[in-house]
Design brief:
Strand order of the largest sheet: 15-14-13-12-7-6-4-5-2-1-17
Number of helices: 19
Shape: globular
Helix content: 40-55%
Distance between the termini: 38 Å
């Protein structure tokens, strides 16, 4: 090794160490990306007098209204009109106490200020859309922090609780703060997670692990019917979290639902990577994951096509696998299903705020030493996307009101995070989010590009209305990228709750669904929404009936594994990988 090479290597170590230290302070957010966005916005605003005049007019209008409201309140003849429309998802000021003076004036002032800064951050000529979104998002985070709902001095509900409990709510809140800090330092799950034990009351659908490699365990579920559909189902979950979101408590288990309907179900359980797994790539996740699982299933259920189902990042990998198989004339798939998964990443929603060249380079340096993306950094990014729900409302409830919301099975699963290997995560962000290679026919599988237009098998796609990870308008673009029949389903709820949508008699859930056939003309997302009537209930029955229609005859259930071909059952489900910390 030459002296110049040694110096370069040493300087790179310093570089990554410095950025890793910075990342611990900033929560993994690149300060350079943040400052670039604000400089872009600020300097364009200074040379945009029309925008400045608009902001001055809005400020004067808001101030005039607030003075009128204040004078009305102290004079006893307040009109009670509110000029600021709250978001339907904003629950901070819906309580009756908030509608009384002076609290109503405080929160109106806050919402007007929030609206003013949103106007200031957006539609400034010359600012890139990405930088505009970063500035708008950052300002919203700061303003949410100083919301009147977050202070005992301005929150009437906290004041009422304090009087009722004579301050004991703060004692309980302090205990909750100390407990949360301890759990964070020791990397322990939140309180209540002990009530949901993997293999005891979650992930309990009977089955066996029939295959294991360095990346996956393949679970085959035991049949619950005398006859099963000939075509088995392979489910590919995201490896960002653990697989059992699709097999929570029995009444919330999509796996159990499908098995009870007569489907032979297999699911991939991903390994939780460590430092030694740093060099795992997207190609490894394809080869050691989906393709290995398909080979095993073809041995267990020979000469039968397979329904391939993917959720979130697993859904994107499902599309990659289906396109690669179509290119290589591998005809083992009967259909493809994608749950809350994107194939075009030009509109990734608020998650795109954390993705640009500066941010990815910063993350790569952070991951360089550890060999993976830490669970705390990933969780922090997702919490920021829903800071009102996941940060501030929890602070108010747990720390100021001194109460704890009981954990349910989905919340316990959400706290059971996994790591992402360095190389795979870097490739994923660059190839898909940054370069949009999959949608543009530039994604490389085994040295050759793949094209989603090669996929001609029937496709079932599920998106959710309030998805912060895979916005439904983005998911809808699958209709532009494939040539087969696409059944698109939009369900109520968010990225997780919308998918875990069990059928019950009384429910507020609903969904829209229709099929765009190969011969049909394209319909844009908003027109589709307006023309497609909602149906009450869960989307699960519609999906199961679609699977049944694209299956052939029913047969006797296959054996568990295939010992003759080296796939004898290894252990009972849920296996070992899902238990890794």
């Amino acid at each position: 090794m030459t002296m110049q090479t040694e110096e370069k290597k040493y300087s790179e170590i310093i570089d990554s160490s410095l950025q890793a230290a910075t990342g611990r302070i900033t929560g993994g957010i690149s300060p350079a990306a943040f400052l670039l966005a604000f400089f872009d916005w600020f300097f364009h605003l200074t040379i945009h007098p029309a925008k400045q005049l608009e902001l001055i007019d809005l400020y004067q209008e808001n101030l005039s209204y607030l003075i009128k409201q204040y004078l009305g309140h102290i004079g006893g003849d307040a009109s009670g009109e509110f000029c600021v429309l709250k978001s339907p998802q904003d629950k901070r000021f819906v309580g009756q106490r908030w509608q009384n003076f002076p609290y109503s004036l405080w929160y109106e002032t806050f919402l007007m200020m929030q609206n003013w800064w949103h106007t200031a951050a957006t539609d400034v000529k010359g600012v890139s859309r990405h930088h505009q979104d970063v500035v708008d998002f950052s300002l919203r985070q700061f303003l949410d922090m100083i919301s009147p709902s977050n202070s005992i001095l301005t929150n009437p509900e906290v004041q009422e609780k304090t009087v009722e409990e004579k301050g004991q709510n703060f004692v309980k809140g302090l205990e909750n703060v100390m407990d949360d800090m301890r759990r964070y330092q020791l990397n322990e799950p939140p309180p209540g997670a002990e009530n949901f034990v993997i293999g005891k009351n979650v992930a309990v659908t009977p089955g066996r692990v029939i295959f294991r490699n360095r990346l996956i365990e393949l679970i085959q579920y035991s049949p619950m019917t005398d006859q099963v559909y000939a075509e088995p189902v392979l489910i590919t979950p995201a490896w960002i979290m653990k697989y059992y979101i699709l097999d929570l408590v029995p009444k919330h288990s999509l796996v159990k639902y499908l098995v009870k309907k007569g489907h032979t179900v297999f699911i991939i359980s991903w390994k939780n990577p460590k430092k030694k797994d740093r060099d795992l790539t997207m190609q490894d996740y394809l080869d050691l994951g989906i393709m290995s699982a398909l080979d095993v299933i073809s041995a267990v259920v020979p000469k039968q096509k397979i329904h391939l189902v993917g959720y979130c990042l697993g859904g994107t990998l499902t599309a990659i696998a289906a396109a690669a198989m179509a290119r290589d004339n591998d005809q083992r798939l009967a259909s493809m299903t994608m749950l809350a998964a994107q194939t075009d990443f030009t509109e990734p929603g608020e998650l795109g705020l954390f993705i640009d060249e500066s941010q990815i380079s910063f993350l790569e340096n952070i991951m360089q030493k550890k060999g993976y993306l830490d669970t705390h950094q990933m969780a922090g990014a997702f919490q920021l996307l829903r800071s009102n729900d996941l940060i501030w409302s929890r602070m108010i409830h747990d720390y100021l009101l001194g109460a704890r919301k009981p954990l349910n099975d989905l919340m316990a699963w959400n706290a059971d995070a996994t790591r992402l290997p360095y190389k795979m995560h870097s490739e994923y962000l660059r190839n898909l989010f940054l370069n949009n290679a999959l949608a543009e026919g530039k994604y490389i599988v085994k040295d050759k590009p793949i094209a989603l237009t090669d996929i001609t098998i029937p496709i079932f796609v599920v998106a959710t209305e309030r998805d912060h990870v895979s916005p439904w308008h983005s998911v809808f673009k699958i209709n532009l990228l494939t040539t087969g029949d696409v059944t698109f389903t939009l369900t109520s709820g968010g990225h997780n709750v919308g998918i875990v949508s069990m059928p019950v008699k009384k429910t507020k859930r609903y969904y829209r669904t229709s099929t765009l056939k190969e011969s049909d003309r394209y319909v844009d997302a908003d027109s589709w929404f307006q023309s497609t009537k909602p149906s009450n209930g869960s989307w699960w029955p519609a999906f199961e009936k679609w699977l049944a229609r694209h299956s052939t005859e029913k047969i006797a259930p296959p054996a568990m594994g295939c010992e003759k071909k080296g796939f004898a059952p290894l252990e009972e489900a849920p296996g070992s990988y899902v238990l890794q910390k």
